[in-house]
Every structure is written in C-alpha cells, then in structure tokens.
Amino acid sequence: MTSTMQQQDVKISGSGTISAGVYNDLKISGSGTVLGDIECEDIKVSGSAKFNGRIKSNRFDCSGSTKCLSDVETNKFSISGSSFVEGKLKSDNVDISGSFKTKDDVLVERLKVSGSMKTEGSVKAETVSISGSFSAKKGCECELFTVNGQLNMDGLLNAESIQITHSGFSFVPELGGETIEISLYSPRNFFRNLFSALFLGKVRFKTKSIEGSAIKLDHTNADVVRGDTVTIGKNCTIGLVEYTEDVQIHSSAKVKEYKRIEK
Fold this sequence. Notes:
The protein has one helix spanning 190-199; strands spanning 10-12, 15-18, 21-22, 25-28, 31-34, 38-45, 48-51, 55-62, 65-68, 72-79, 82-85, 89-96, 99-102, 106-113, 116-119, 123-124, 127-130, 133-136, 140-153, 156-166, 170-171, 174-176, 179-184, 205-211, 214-217, 220-232, 237-249, 254-260. The chain is mainly beta.
C-alpha cells in the first residue's frame, strides 16, 4: 500500500513524536505521537501511541494501546491490546483478541473478534466471526455471521447465514437472512452447567423482528417471526409466527399467534 521508493524505518522505545510522512516500518514500544497523516508498510505498537492524522499501511499491529483520531486503511488490522479509532476503519482482515472501539463505520472483508468490539457506526463485511462481545450501533451487513458470546445492536443485522449462540443479555432489533439459527450457550464444565441452570435459564436473545427462509430458535423473545420453515424451540416467547411451508413449536415455548400465509 505504500510507495515503492525506499523509505526509512522509525522506532520509538522511549518517548517521542513523529512527523507526517511516508515511512517503511514504524515500531513504538514506548510512548509515541504521530503528528499528521502517515503511510507505512508495517505499524507495530507494543507501548502507547496516538495518531493525529490518517493512517495507511499494509499491517497495523497493536499489543499495547493506540488512539487513532482519523481514518485507518490497512490490509491487516490486529489488536491484542486496546485500540480506539475515531474515523472509519477499512481493511481486508481484522483480528481483535483485545479491546477495540470505533466511532465510525467498519468496512472489512473478514472480521474475527475473540475479545470485545464496539462501534458507533455500522459494520459491512464478507464474514463476521465473534467469540467474545460485539456491539454495532448502526447494525451489520455481511454474507456469513457467526456469534458465540454477547451481541448488541441498534440497527439491522442482515446476512445470508446467521448463527447466534448467545450468553448474557443480547439484543438486535431486526434480523434478516436466508438461514437463521439462535440458541443459548451451553457450557460443558460441571460448575458452569450448574451456574447456567441457576442463572442463565432465563437469559434470552431479544428482538422485534426475524425474517428468513429457514429459521430455528430457542431461548428467544421476538415480537414477529416470518419464514418458510420455522422451528420455535424451548423457552421461546413469540408474539406472531407467520410461515409459508411448515412450523414446529416446542411444548415449553409460548406463541401468542401463528398462521400460514401464501407466498
């Protein structure tokens, strides 16, 4: 992503500032401040860094703490520490095993979160895989969406395939897709199973509307569910189910109304 001309490496192991410009590799293991727009091959932060301008790089790797006050564009964005981005994030691959927050949209090919991620904007991706905590205020649009953890949105979740295994409180106002499956996390450890039986039995995924082709739910609260084939599993509370082909309702589920409609 950077110029083919030979550029210098920059390294800060104590405290220092870096001017705007084009560099080769940037490494900060102490405390560093970048004063303006920067373009690098690789950026690696194991200390703390503040970026005041736009960032363009091939790789952005943070195992420390970073604050980015403008847009970030990089092929690979990896956070095992903590990072905040005030502008847009555009990347091919994003891997979050630490803590990541952004105030604007996230535009990626592949997003993987095993830590926590929160954005005030929207997320657009090809694939999203979450095994921690994920919050997107303006919703998410992708092809494949998989979650095993906590999920919160204020906007629409739209994907071809949606698979959610939730724990704790999770809320998405609207879901749309071809195949949608929502279930409760079931720990294998004995003590976790005991905790789950005592406290998580009442934990449910909450939504206003679910629309898809093949829908399978358990431990879910929804106002309306619309699909071709719909399976309402255990501990669900549903206001209205509309289906075109088939519906199955578990004996423990509470469904106020269900009806078959023509395509």
